[in-house]
Amino acid sequence: xxxxxxxxxxAIEAVLDIAMNAGDQxxxxxxxxxxxxxxxxxxxxxxxxxxxxxxxxGKRGPRGGYMLGRERRRISLGDIIRVVQQLEAETxxxxxxxxxxLAHMVVWxxxxxxxxxxxxxxxxxxxxxxxxxxxxxxxxxxxxxxxxFHI
Length: 151
What we know:
This protein is mainly α. About 55% of the residues lie in helices and about 5% in strands. The chain has six helices and two strands; from the N terminus they run αααββααα. The longest helix has 23 residues, at about 100-125. The radius of gyration is 17 Å and the shape is elongated.
């Protein structure tokens, strides 16, 4: 079952911040850190993985930063969670070899089915949905212009 770890929360917040604040220039990680109060050590690691998986696009240089890698409606909550799960698995692997035969035949398969159901629900929620929710709660972007990514 996906858990809402710090890295997961920070990754979701960062993608939402970028979705809301990307104008004609990429969003700098320092601005995300300031707006969302995310420790830089967590943020940089998560952003790099999100770029590697195509959720975000990174631009280097003095005017560099991050933009969405594809349209908001094409990025799901599940996409972000999978990136963080992959990152966390590198340091916190789950050991499915633990347990009795009952665990292997019943508990782990049931747990995996539940995880798949939850991830399916997460895949149905897009960044566009979450940006709309943020706006309905009165949250506004810092930038006057918001860049919409269309193909």
